Amino acid sequence: MTTLDIDLVIPSGRSDEFGCAAETAGFRWINRSDNGWHRFVMDDVEGEVSIECLPAGKNSPRDAEDAPPIPEPEELGVSSGLGYANLTGWVLMKLVANRDKDRYHLGEAVKQMDEAKMAMVVQHLRKYPTRYLREFQRILQACQDEDSRNW
Questions:
Q1: pLDDT at 104 (0 to 100)
Q2: Beta-sheet pairing, 47-55 with 28-31
Q3: How far apart are CA 72 and CA 133, in angstroms?
Q4: Is the pLDDT at 68 greater than 90, yes or no?
Q5: Which residue intervals make up region (Disordered) (predicted)?
Q6: Cβ neighbour number for residue 32 with a 10 Å cutoff
Q7: DSSP H or E stretch at residue 10
Q8: For residue 111, is it within any domain?
Q9: Residues 10-39: tens digit of each pLDDT
Q10: CATH number at residue 1
Q11: What ranges in 1-151 are assigned the alpha helix state H?
Q12: Domain region containing 10
């Protein structure tokens, strides 16, 4: 049995509205947060579906003091409904989260990026504290070092 983990950026002020909709759709509350960091789960024949709400405009309690807040969905390229974050926003969110699993996900994504996409990410990261660009460059270097074609 596997778990499908989904992170959803919820527009400012709409976390509770989303929570009610998720409950109506059959998701169970795991955590109700006064700050909108709700968590839900639904059992499925193939495993568990877990949703973590990321409230736009807020920071996680574990974020660094100067970390940028969760962007609005529009800033991630999602103008309505559900959609995937654009690459630059996704990379920044993974770097801000600063967890091992997020660095792993970034490493796997980097292996699929061409130079144009890497340059686009670097340009975007230059708008934020330098540690995010340094960490992205460290991940890039680690991926190049483990690529046997470079040996």
A1: 94
A2: unpaired
A3: 21
A4: yes
A5: 55-75
A6: 13
A7: strand 2-10
A8: yes
A9: 998 898 899 999 999 999 999 999 999 999
A10: 3.30.720
A11: 15-24, 87-97, 100-110, 115-125, 130-146
A12: 1-66
